[in-house]
From TrEMBL, chain A:
Residues 139-423 form the NADH:quinone oxidoreductase/Mrp antiporter transmembrane domain. GO terms for molecular function: NADH dehydrogenase (ubiquinone) activity; NADH dehydrogenase activity. The keyword Nucleotide-binding does not apply. Keywords: Membrane, Transmembrane, Transmembrane helix. GO terms for cellular component: endomembrane system; membrane. PANTHER family: NADH-UBIQUINONE OXIDOREDUCTASE CHAIN 5. Signal peptide: none annotated. InterPro entries: ND/Mrp_TM, NU5C-like, NU5C2, Proton_antipo_N. It is found in: Endomembrane system; Membrane. The chain crosses the membrane at residues 12-31, 43-62, 92-113, 120-137, 143-165, 177-197, 209-230, 286-306, 318-341, 377-399, 411-431, 452-474, 494-518, 598-618. One of its GO terms (biological process) is ATP synthesis coupled electron transport. This is NAD(P)H-quinone oxidoreductase subunit F. It is a multi-pass membrane protein.
Automatic annotation (TrEMBL), chain B:
Residues 126-419 form the NADH:quinone oxidoreductase/Mrp antiporter transmembrane domain. Belongs to the complex I subunit 4 family. NCBIfam families: NDH_I_M, PRK06473.1. Keywords: Membrane, Transmembrane, Transmembrane helix. It is a multi-pass membrane protein. One of its GO terms (cellular component) is membrane. PANTHER family: NAD(P)H-QUINONE OXIDOREDUCTASE CHAIN 4, CHLOROPLASTIC, NADH-UBIQUINONE OXIDOREDUCTASE CHAIN 4. Its main location: membrane. One of its GO terms (biological process) is ATP synthesis coupled electron transport. The lineage of its organism: Bacteria, Bacillati, Cyanobacteriota, Cyanophyceae, Oscillatoriophycideae. Pfam families: Proton_antipo_M. This is NADH-quinone oxidoreductase subunit M. The chain crosses the membrane at residues 6-23, 30-50, 70-96, 108-126, 132-150, 162-185, 205-228, 240-260, 266-286, 298-316, 322-347, 368-393, 405-425, 453-472.
């Protein structure tokens, strides 16, 4: 039985897709009598099936060699596109994480969106989301992965645009789609190029192809950069990071998925592509630079936000920046562990944030306070989630960092500095949010704040327990993805100091966060420099303004200029010819005089002119 | 076999012609629908009997027509024309079915629709240059009347513009055809013998250029395109669907059949510049589409951008890219027909197509939720979202052309990226947001407004998920289009990537690609 389920693991992503299709009668309004609830239950059931199936498959594959499933999808002329799936502990583990978080999120959404009239549409989109994510987790083909990433882009667009009547949602959905699409198109360029060089698009065959190094460094760099572009958009990395923050206008359960697993899936693809980057050191360096810029920049942006979801989403970008650095350095296993710990911790924090938003009908943290005693489960979830994201002893991030900094990998001073910086700022920000939301006096909007209903509390508490246990994974992780056993360099002073320094950075962050003067009323700092900094961070370094003035303006001006050219020059010329014909005809009609002498004269003159014109060279 | 494809609609025309003038328009529609469905079934029957692996033309019919002039009645189908015949049948049927039931002058209208079908079918199956030209011209007249009688406010202007442009197109093509017949000295307009004529390169170029202009007007490419947005805006929905879905394909079909088929040397010589032309046209169309405020104009300009990909693929003339050209024709036919249909429904229900007036149409209880969802689906298909037929067609185009023309291909891909921009701006303005006061009391959407769109969507999905069916007729012998009679081109048709071992992505001057 387990073998059968394992062999048919390819079916797991289809559960979500089937669920999505089955919701159509409700979301299209064909069935109205029952209300949208049955659609939600169908999807929950499908996701539960997917979770159980993937859990069994994961258990069955543990310790087994990797299996490949190949579907011959399309072949024409010299091109064959097989859809290859890989069944390995890594891919099935990723799949289990996806289905698990999807299951919890969907139960959670039952409470969060209880009174929403388009519940069925939401569950349909979540099913699509889950299917695409699961597909990427299993896929061993760059082509298939690209297709599924595009489906993810589409479903992100539709989920962010879920409440499409609100103006902010409209722009958020548009920006999310277009930003990701920029990355995707560049990625497609890379895929077309790779495909043209022969050798197929499976990750494994690409790995083999790389070892023969058939292309010049210059070309390899270009291809490498295009391959980075797609995940950069998906993981909300600089310069394609702004969509994630805007996307927080969508419903929160989708936000849970988006900040935990969806942003991770881009990095997961990068992990799969990492062997290709050995062709081009520049591409690896670019990964590190992107990661560093994003990690530092978005950490700073996060501390100036007053929207609870936005501040957390910026921190997602920061953690994904760390993952990018790890991949750029070739520390692939660490990247995977970072993704795992971040996904679980961030999902938990977002569940907690969703509970707060639903209870207070508010996302502005300066208008909150005193929720700690009223919503115990939510508070515990927030604390546990936060602790698991900063290097706090028994939890996931601590063990991941310990694994990274224990001397198995080559660690540079700058890397440690970045880690400390991100960790400290993360601690500052989470402490700040915690103090504003849960401590202090009650505000008008938090006065009546009961704990959330069981549909939301149950997945939240469940995930809290999982987060507490998740620290086991980084400790036991067998480093499957690293081709050679990492070096051991335990003696260097940097290594021996690394963990204490990191922990102390977290403590410093905690202290700063707790002593920071918090302003509940919306007031501005007195000093001009402080005010400048606050604005700079709060408005995301004005990146949006810069885009508006450069890319958006360029496209819009070009299109206006082209349209003008089209209308007045191209079409104008055509109309001019037409008018000229009509006018000349109108003018010439006065020659129709009815006198034959005049006609003869015209003919003679015309013949002469023609003769001169054609035989002009004679004279 | 093939003559029946022309005769069945003719019988339909006769049947409609014998009806009294006071007849209910719906009966006319029913009769023409029956005729067209019979043609479609017959087409599919031919398709079943079609052997994709057999060389040359199939189901050939040859009757000498005017022997001393060299005209023959010669029909035949191959992998290039077979899918287009089916597309023609499907889209004509859907167009006729989606014509409103209370049309004025119904007998004339349906006669013209069937005449267009005959013209297009004839052009696709004609194996004689003069016969092709006759059918090509035959389809112009009905379309002129369809725009000029049942069109919008500026229908006279649009129809005349269309007529003049297409007449010039026909003139150019005729000049080229006469030239090739006279200069080759075969004395016959029959297609196959002309292919092996082996004209010198200079002559070929001289003959290819008017052909390119002629078909370039029809497809249309920049700068010959300005008739298209006007014609689309003024034409009624079914006519727009036919125009975008089928009639434009005559141009690309002509390019492949006659441009590549008759003047392969010249084609190879000009190919880099044709690819540049494709890129310019694609970017130009996309760029214009961004600034349009009329939904139909957005779709029309996107049509220009997407048709340019076919030229890119045709320019590359690798096995894959020729196949891709066929796929892109089908994909564009289905997707643009779907979009024009849906925009037509929006216009019918709201009375406007202005993106600055319409807002919030996705509203569940008082808007057009299903139509809106289908439009989102349609624009995603057009933007090349995987799982739908547009993606695989564009992927094949890019993959097939990249090795020969990397820079031009990348520019065309930027054009694909822009598709998402203009369509998303349109969808966001029209369907998202709060329902505007202008459009608050919308009439009920009938199922007859939905079913054609649903059928097209399903086909778009199925061919996207199972593209093997898309290439079934064309795949095995698409190469014969280029090699069978012409001299095999060393550089153009290598089974691999067409570039030998020069695998550099580099940016060499494009001219160096040319194989002489």
């Amino acid at each position: 039985m387990t073998d059968f389920l394992l062999a048919n693991s390819w079916f797991i992503p289809l559960y979500g897709a089937i669920g999505a299709v089955l919701t159509l009668p409700w979301s299209l309004g064909i069935i109205r009598r029952t209300g949208p609830r049955p659609a939600a239950y169908i999807n929950l059931l499908m996701t539960l099936a997917a979770f159980v199936h993937s859990s069994i498959a994961f258990w069955a594959i543990w310790g087994q060699p990797t299996q490949k499933l190949v579907f011959n999808w399309f072949s024409a002329a010299d091109l064959t596109i097989p859809l290859t799936l890989e069944l390995s502990p890594v891919s099935l583990g990723a799949l289990e994480l996806v289905t698990g978080i999807s299951l919890l999120t969907q139960v959670y959404a039952l409470g969060y969106l209880e009174k929403d009239w388009s519940l069925a549409r939401f569950y349909g989109l979540m099913g699509l989301f889950e299917a695409a994510l699961g597909g990427v987790a299993l896929s061993d083909s760059l082509f298939l992965t690209y297709c599924l990433l595009e489906v993810l882009t589409l479903s992100t667009y539709l989920l962010v645009g879920f409440w499409y009547a609100q103006p902010l949602v409209v722009t958020a959905a548009r920006d999310a789609f277009l930003t990701k699409r920029v990355g995707d198109i560049i990625l497609l360029m890379g895929i077309v190029a790779l495909s043209s060089y022969g050798e197929g698009l499976d990750f494994s065959s690409l790995q083999n192809w790389v070892t023969t190094a058939p292309i010049s460094t210059w070309t390899a760099t270009w291809v490498g950069l295009t391959l980075i572009a797609g995940p950069t958009g998906k993981c909300a990395q600089f310069p394609l990071n702004l969509w994630l923050d805007e996307a927080m206008e969508g419903p929160n359960p989708a936000g849970i998925m988006r900040n935990s697993v969806v942003v991770s899936i881009g990095a997961y693809v990068l992990i799969k592509l990492q062997p290709i980057f050995i062709l081009s050191p520049i591409a690896e360096d670019v990964l590190i630079v992107i990661g560093t810029v994003t990690a530092i920049g978005t950490s700073l942006m996060a501390i100036a936000q007053i929207d609870i979801k936005r501040t957390l989403s910026h921190s997602s970008s920061a953690y994904l920046g760390l993952v990018f650095i790890a991949i750029g350095l070739g520390h692939v296993d660490i990247a995977l562990l970072l993704l795992f710990t971040h996904a679980i911790g961030k999902a938990l924090i977002f569940m907690s944030a969703g509970s707060i938003i639903l209870t207070t009908s508010n996302q502005n943290i300066t208008e909150m306070g005193g929720l700690g005693s009223k919503m115990p489960a939510t508070t515990i979830a927030f604390v546990v989630g936060s602790a698991s994201l900063v290097a706090c002893l028994p939890l996931g991030f601590f063990w991941t960092m310990q694994r990274w900094l224990n001397g198995s990998w080559e660690i540079h001073g700058w890397l440690l500095a970045i880690l400390m910086f991100v960790n400290a700022l993360s601690a500052v920000n989470l402490t700040r949010v915690f103090r504003l939301v849960f401590l202090g006096s009650t505000q008008p909007k938090t006065r009546r704040a009961p704990e959330v209903p069981w549909t939301m509390a149950l997945p939240m508490v469940g995930l809290t327990v999982v987060t507490l246990l998740a620290g086991i994974a980084p400790r036991l992780w067998p480093l499957w993805l690293s081709p050679v056993a990492p070096l051991a360099d335990v003696d260097s002073p940097l290594i021996s100091l690394a963990m204490p320094l990191l922990i102390s950075s977290g403590v410093v962050g905690l202290i700063i966060g707790s002593t920071l003067e918090l302003r509940r009323a919306w007031s501005r700092p007195m000093q001009r420099s402080m005010r400048f900094l606050q604005d700079l961070f709060a408005y995301d370094f004005y990146i949006e303004k810069i885009y508006e003035l450069t890319v958006v303006m360029a496209v819009s001006l070009t299109s206006k200029a082209t349209t003008w050219f089209d209308r007045y020059v191209v079409d104008g010329a055509v109309n001019f010819v037409g008018l000229a014909t009509i006018f000349s005809g109108q003018a010439l009609k006065y020659n129709v005089s009815g006198r034959s002498q005049f006609y003869v004269l015209t003919i003679v003159i015309g013949t002469c002119v023609l003769f001169v014109l054609t035989n002009g060279w004679l004279f | 076999m093939l003559s029946a494809l022309l005769l069945i609609p003719l019988v339909g025309i006769a049947a409609i012609g014998f009806l009294p003038g006071t007849i209910d328009p719906k009966i006319c529609r029913r009769i023409s629908l029956v005729a067209i469905l019979a043609t479609l079934i017959w087409t599919i029957w031919i398709g079943i009997g079609f052997d994709p692996t057999a060389p040359g033309m199939q189901f050939s019919e040859f009757v000498p027509w005017v022997p001393w002039m060299g005209f023959n009645y010669h029909l035949g189908v191959d992998g290039l024309s077979m899918p287009l015949l089916v597309l023609n049948g499907v889209l004509t049927a859907i167009s006729i079915a989606s014509t409103p039931g209370d049309l004025h002058r119904p007998r004339f209208y349906y006669t013209l629709m069937l005449l267009i079908n005959i013209g297009v079918t004839g052009a696709f199956v004609a194996q004689d240059l003069f016969l092709f030209f006759g059918f090509y011209e035959l389809e112009i007249v009905p379309l002129y009347f369809l725009i000029a009688i049942w069109g919008g406010k500026r229908r006279g202007y649009a129809a005349t513009k269309f007529l003049i442009y297409t007449a010039i197109s026909g003139f150019c093509i005729l000049a080229s055809f006469l030239g090739v017949v006279w200069l080759s000295g075969t004395g016959s307009f029959d297609y196959a013998p002309l292919r092996s004529a082996g004209l010198p390169l200079g002559t070929q170029i001289l003959l290819l250029v008017p052909l390119l202009v002629g078909f370039g007007i029809k497809i249309p490419f920049f700068p010959f395109h300005t008739w298209l947005p006007d014609a689309h805006v003024e034409a009624s929905t079914p006519v727009s669907m036919l125009l975008a879905g089928v009639l434009l394909k005559l141009g690309t079909y002509g390019l492949l059949r006659f441009g590549v088929g008759l003047f392969l040397d010249a084609w190879a010589y000009l190919a880099p510049w044709l690819a540049v032309w494709a890129a310019v046209s694609a970017l130009y169309g996309a760029s214009c589409a961004i600034a349009q405020t009329d939904m139909k104009k957005v779709v029309a300009y996107s049509s220009i951008a997407h048709m340019a990909f076919i030229l890119l693929a045709a320019a590359a003339t690798t096995q894959l890219s020729l196949l891709a050209a066929v796929c892109q024709m089908i994909a564009h036919g289905l997707i643009s027909a779907l979009l024009f249909f849906l925009v037509g429904v929006v216009y019918k229900k709201t009375g406007t197509r202005d993106v600055n007036v319409l807002r919030g149409l996705l509203n569940f209880s008082r808007g057009l939720p299903l139509i809106g969802s289908l439009i989102i689906l349609g624009v995603m298909a057009s933007a090349g979202l995987p799982g739908m037929v547009g993606f695989i067609a564009e992927f094949l185009v890019f993959r097939g052309s990249f090795s020969l023309f990397p820079v031009q291909t990348l520019l065309c891909m930027v054009g694909t990226g822009l598709t998402a921009v203009y369509f998303l701006l349109m969808v966001n303005k029209v369907f998202f947001g709060r329902l505007s006061e202008v459009t608050i009391d919308l009439p009920q959407v009938q199922w007859s407004d939905r079913i054609p769109a649903l059928i097209l969507s399903v086909v778009i999905f199925i061919l996207g998920i199972q593209p093997n069916w898309l290439v079934f007729w064309s795949e095995p012998r698409i190469v014969s289009l280029v090699t069978e009679f012409g001299q095999p081109q060393a550089g153009l048709l290598t089974p691999g990537n067409g570039m030998g071992d020069d695998r550099d992505l580099g940016f060499q001057p494009i001219k160096s690609e040319v194989t002489q």
